Amino acid sequence: MIVTIDGVAASGKSSVASGVARALGIPYVSSGFLYRAATLLALEAGLPPSDPAPLLALLRGRPLRLEPLAGGNRVWQGERDLTPGLHSSRVDAGVSAVARLPEVRAWVDEELRALPEPFVAEGRDMGTNVFPHADAKFYLTASPRVRAERRAQERGEDAGTVEAALIERDRRDAAQSAPAPDARVIDTGPLTLEGVIGAVLAALPARTA
Ligand SMILES: Nc1ncnc2c1ncn2[C@@H]1O[C@H](COP(=O)(O)OP(=O)(O)O)[C@@H](O)[C@H]1O
Ligand SMILES: Nc1ccn([C@@H]2O[C@H](COP(=O)(O)OP(=O)(O)O)[C@@H](O)[C@H]2O)c(=O)n1
Q1: 100, 175 in Cβ contact below 8 A?
Q2: Residue ranges of the domains in the chain?
Q3: What pTM value is reported for the model?
Q4: How far is residue 126's CA from residue 177's CA, in Å, rounded to a whole number?
Q5: CA nearest to 64, candidates 73, 141, 72
Q6: ipTM of the prediction greater than 0.90, yes or no
Q7: DSSP assignment letter at 175
Q8: Residue 170 alpha carbon to ligand 1 centre in Å
Q9: Strands (DSSP E) along 2-43, which ranges?
Q10: Which of 11, 30, 96, 104 lies 20 to 30 angstroms, CA to CA, from 38?
Q11: How distant, in Å, are the alpha carbons of 58, 66, 84, 120, 124 from that of 62?
Q12: Architecture in CATH of 2-203
C-alpha cells in the first residue's frame, strides 16, 4: 500500500506524511532528502549542476541509503550521516538545479521504487511519476506568506527573506511539481497540522485506513 503526499515547498508534506504514517503504523519516505543529499555532495565536491556525469559517478561509486524512519528520514553514505547538512540555505538554493537533471531524477526514482511497501511517500512527483498506481494521492498547498512564516519560525530566520527564497524555488520546481489528476488537493493555510493529518486519514480508502 502506497499513499503519496506531494506539494509546494514548506506546505507541510513531511510533517503530514510523518503524522499519517505514524497513524497507519508504517514508514514515510522523503524523496526530497535524496535530491538534497545529491546536492550536498555536488556542492562539497565543487561539481557544476549542469553536468550530471561526475555527480552520477559519485552517487553510484559511494551509494546513498535512505532510511525511512517514521519520526524522520535519514540519509547515509556508508557510515556518514548526511542528514544534518540537508536543510541549509545553500542546499535549498542549489537543489532545484540538481533535481532538474533527468539522470538525477532517474537515480532517485530507482532508489524509491526499490523500497518495500507499505509507506507514505512525499515530494513533488510521487503521485504523477514515481508511484502513479498509489492507493491514495494528496497535494498540499498554502500561500507563500503562510509557508514562509511557518518555515521562518522553524529555522529562526526572517520571514520576508524565506518567502522570497520559497517563491524562487517554487518557480524553479514548477516543471517537476504538479498535482496528479486523481490527487485530492488540500489548502493547509487555514488548517492546523493535526487538521491536515486528520483530513488525509479521513479521505483514505477503507482498505488503506
Ligand atoms: N497545517 C499546518 N499548520 C501549521 N504549521 C504547519 C502546518 N503544516 C506544517 N506546518 C509547519 O510548517 C513547517 C514546514 O512543514 P514541513 O512538513 O517541513 O513542510 P515540507 O515538507 O512541505 O517542506 C514545519 O515547521 C511544520 O511544523
Ligand atoms: N519528488 C521530488 C522531491 C523533491 N524535489 C526537489 O528537491 C527539493 C527539496 O525537496 P523537499 O521536499 O526536501 O523540500 P521542501 O519542500 O521540504 O522545502 C525541491 O525543491 C525540488 O527541487 C523534486 O524535484 N522532486
Answers
A1: yes
A2: 2-203
A3: 0.95
A4: 9
A5: 73
A6: yes
A7: G
A8: 16
A9: 2-7, 28-30
A10: 11
A11: 6, 13, 19, 27, 26
A12: 3-Layer(aba) Sandwich (3.40)
Nearest CA to ligand 2 atom 9: 32
C-alpha 101 – ligand 1 centre gap (Å) = 27
CB–CB of 74/87 below 8 Å?
no
- Tell me the per-residue pLDDT of 135-144, one tens digit each, with 9 for 90 and over: 999 999 999 9
Q: What is the mean pLDDT of residues 85-110?
A: 94
Residue 207 vs residues 1, 17, 24, 135, 152: alpha-carbon distances, Å: 9, 18, 12, 9, 38
- pLDDT for 164-184, tens place per residue? 999 998 998 888 788 999 999
pLDDT at 207: 61
Q: Which one, of 40, 10, 13, lies nearest residue 123 by Cα?
A: 13
Return the amino acid letter for 61: G
Cell numbers standing for residue 92: 535549498
Tell me which H or E stretch contains 74: strand 74-77
User: Given the CA of residue 153, which atom of ligand 1 is nearest to it?
Assistant: 25
209: pLDDT strictly greater than 60: no
Query: Residue 68 Cα, ligand 2 centroid: separation in angstroms?
Result: 16
pLDDT of residue 206: 81
